[in-house]
Design brief:
6% strand, 413 residues, mainly alpha, 4-stranded mixed β-sheet, 20 helices, Arc Repressor Mutant, subunit A
Length: 413
């Protein structure tokens, strides 16, 4: 429901360690893009967790202590959810609503400024000059003069490990608090989806399980379909006589069929600052569904089912968004003579997952470093590859020209 009542109850769960450095990052980097009320709400909730433990709290007292109306609180909370600082879970039992607020740490300054979306929002909020000043505050000087050489002890210099000792095979099932931050909430709009479903059927929102909606939103993102198109597909495939109601293999096939007819007229711009080819390329990668990206690469023809299955794996098994999936696809095609190898894609995806890559910029930087490392063996060839990756294998002009051609062909039919 899109409101909050003073009679609601809530609990607080902390998903990450939150340090004083995080609070500085929140106030200097996040506050300009989420507002003072949202920043204050975040600090209040994280403080309440310390003082109240796992207690169930009443929203009325929170509103009084922060001097916020219910609407102001709801608005502030939505900003925190949007940028991944909190996740909200709701339960309604006999008209009593209870919430669980899961709190995540802010991005580190490094991760914040490497994230195209967050950096762009900051520039829009405070201006490029101030954003650069804030970035310079967090600059780290790791330059070591040439006359110094490292004398640090290695791990094995100090510890003599017997790997056969059973101590090294023990596992703890307990979830341990660590460093984790939520992702910006750019997800499927459930309310809009349910609205279209209700307009075109007698199916109610309660008919869908939470796991059903996760899969519906994931497929929508993968194939670039909006809430309306997904609602029509789900309504068509909904089987009230089945115990599960939904056959997601059929829904996936229907989504795949949509690619044939649903050509995008243009790619909308996101809040990314800068006119460089690279910034435009990143924007394009993040806004284009992988299935449509494959279609563009093939001059508008339908992608092979096996290629779509690879993109589906990267989305489902690794949890990557459009930008990272498209980066992997383009990189593998470039390195593998235009052959989209499943094993190669999964190898790259596993490496990105181990590196903790969460943004398109991180993925591009990691793959760029991979090319730089290989340049030590093949200097001349790799310099050319690195330059092409940095400026992108698909130029923005070529992409726009292709989109225009596709649109002309569509209307000419």
């Amino acid at each position: 429901m899109n409101y909050v009542s003073k009679n609601d109850f809530y609990e607080i769960r902390v998903a990450s360690l939150i340090t004083n450095l995080d609070r500085d990052s929140l106030l200097e980097l996040y506050q300009p893009i989420i507002g003072a009320s949202s920043a204050s709400l975040y600090l209040t909730l994280s403080t309440q967790k310390k003082s109240n433990g796992d207690s169930i709290l009443k929203t009325e007292q929170l509103l009084k202590s922060m001097q916020l109306t219910a609407n102001e609180f709801y608005s502030a909370r939505r900003y925190l959810e949007a940028v991944g600082l909190i996740r909200t879970f709701e339960s309604v039992i006999e008209d009593v609503r209870c919430y669980i607020y899961v709190i995540y740490s802010p991005k580190s300054p490094k991760a914040f400024f490497e994230d195209t979306l967050f950096k762009g929002l900051l520039i829009l909020s405070v201006g490029e000059k101030e954003a650069k000043r804030l970035a310079s505050k967090w600059k780290v000087n790791l330059t070591i003069p040439e006359e110094y050489h490292e004398v640090s002890a290695s791990f094995l210099d100090v510890y003599k490990i017997d790997y056969d000792d059973p101590s090294f095979r023990k596992e703890f099932s307990t979830t341990i608090l660590g460093r984790d931050h939520g992702r910006a909430n750019l997800d499927f709009n459930y309310d809009l989806f349910f609205g279209y479903v209700g307009e075109n059927s007698s199916i109610t929102a309660s008919s869908f399980k939470k796991k059903d909606m996760k899969e519906i939103s994931r497929l929508a993102t993968l194939f670039g379909l909006d809430e309306k198109r997904m609602a029509f597909i789900v309504v068509d495939e909904y089987n009230p006589e089945s115990s599960t109601h939904l056959d997601f293999e059929k829904i996936k096939n229907r989504c795949e069929e949509e690619i044939r007819f649903n050509i995008v007229k243009n790619v909308e711009k996101s809040n990314v600052s800068g006119d460089s080819e690279l910034s435009k390329k990143i924007q394009l990668m993040e806004e284009t569904a992988p299935a449509k990206f494959l279609q563009y690469l093939q001059q508008g023809t339908k992608p092979a089912r096996s290629d779509i299955a690879i993109a589906n794996t990267l989305s489902k098994d690794y949890g990557f968004g459009n930008g990272i999936i498209n980066t992997i696809i383009e990189y593998v095609l470039y390195k593998n003579d235009n052959i989209l190898s499943k094993n190669y894609c999964e190898k790259i995806a596993s490496s990105l997952a181990r590196e903790g890559v969460t943004t398109t910029v991180d993925a591009m930087n990691y793959l760029k470093k991979t090319v730089v490392k290989s340049s030590k063996k093949k200097i001349n060839a790799s310099q050319k590859k690195e330059k092409e990756i940095e400026s992108s294998q698909i130029s923005l002009d070529e992409m726009n020209e292709l989109l225009n051609d596709l649109e002309v062909k569509k209307h000419g039919k």
